[in-house]
Amino acid sequence: MRFQKFRIFISFFLIFITSHIITAQDTKFYKASSDTLNIDEHLFLKINLSRSKILDLIVPPIDKTVLPLAITLPITSFIASRASNNSYNENSAVLLGFSEITSATISFSLKNIVRRQRPFVKFPNVFYNKNNSPTDDFSFPSGHSSIAFSIATLLTLRYPDKPLLIATSYFYAVTVAYGRVYLGVHYPSDVLTGALIGSTSAVLIYSLRKEIIATKNSVFNESEKFSKTQSSISNGYFLLALVSADVLNYFIYINKIKLLKTTKLTLSPLCTESFLNLNVHF
Question: CB-hemisphere CA count at 13 Å for 30?
């Protein structure tokens, strides 16, 4: 029963997304003959060329939160949980960090092995947002998708009794993955593979949680400090983190001041207190 609401939530979201995939006016935007396109390329063009004012509003700001969230979430959550003596959330932060590192390492390695060109290189006339989150030269797999699904899956495994947290984190991950195609930087197969890598990395790290936590405890000379304090995470923390970051990043994103355009904000939610993180790049 606890996953019923989650399934309904995801179903409505998928219906919303697919409702924006229309078939009109595809072929006149690219030079390649439709006979030479594979299924992956056809689907990319269908998603990328089907523009929506709603998605134009929400996708770019969410895309910009992935890297700041991935970096600051485990670190600030670990510090805050340790300060509040919440060992369960502290251990969750450690596992989250290892999960993200694992998924990022696998994704980066595959990128440099496969070396697949970005779709906007092959299809120069498709929509491509040059102001989106930083990207490297290669497309397969999607690093953003792997990190987003790594976070969502690890949180699900650590907090299975928090359906709102699970639904929100997967909503975020699906939006990031869809957005990477919508923004013109990935093919659908890139984001699907990234999602698989991220989810698998989280499951792997979770299966090794006893060994990882024991190693962490030995580093801090706390051999008995396992999850004595049960999770006190609130269902609203992750939702608040995403909403706050996306709203503020949206106003930063549309601002014409160069300094603000390189500024990103995230909110760390894995603890009894929330922390705002401001990242400015000069």
Answer: 23
Query: CA 11 to CA 8: how far, in whole Å?
Result: 5
d(CA 30, CA 123) in angstroms, rounded, equals 6
Burial of 18 from C-beta contacts in 10 A (0-12 / 13-18 / 19+) = exposed
Helix and strand numbers (H, E) in the chain are: 11, 2
Contacts for 10 with CB less than 8 Å, ≥ 6 apart:
167, 170, 171, 174
Q: Is the peptide bond between 141 and the residue preceding it cis, with omega within 30 degrees of 0? A: yes
Distance between CA 67 and CA 65 in Å, rounded?
A: 6
pLDDT in tens, 242-274: 555 555 555 555 554 454 445 454 444 444 444
- CA atoms of 282 and 262, how far apart (whole Å): 7
Q: Which residue has the higher pLDDT, 253 or 38?
A: 38
Question: Quick one: average pLDDT of 165-185?
Answer: 94
CA–CA separation, 198 vs 241, rounded Å? 20
For the record, the structure tokens of 108 come out as 């980066």
Q: 232 in helix, strand or coil?
A: coil
| Lookup: tokens for 122 | 């092959």
pLDDT in tens, 70-125: 988 899 889 988 888 889 999 999 999 999 999 999 999 999 999 999 998 889 88
Domain-by-domain residue ranges, the chain?
4-14+48-280
Q: Cα(225)–Cα(230) distance, rounded to whole angstroms?
A: 12
Query: Are the C-beta atoms of 47 and 21 separated by less than 8 Å?
Result: yes
Q: 90 with 78: CB under 8 angstroms? A: yes
Phi, psi of 33 (to 5 degrees): -70, 140
pTM, 2 dp? 0.74
Class of domain 4-14+48-280: mainly alpha
Cβ(147)–Cβ(198) under 8 Å? yes
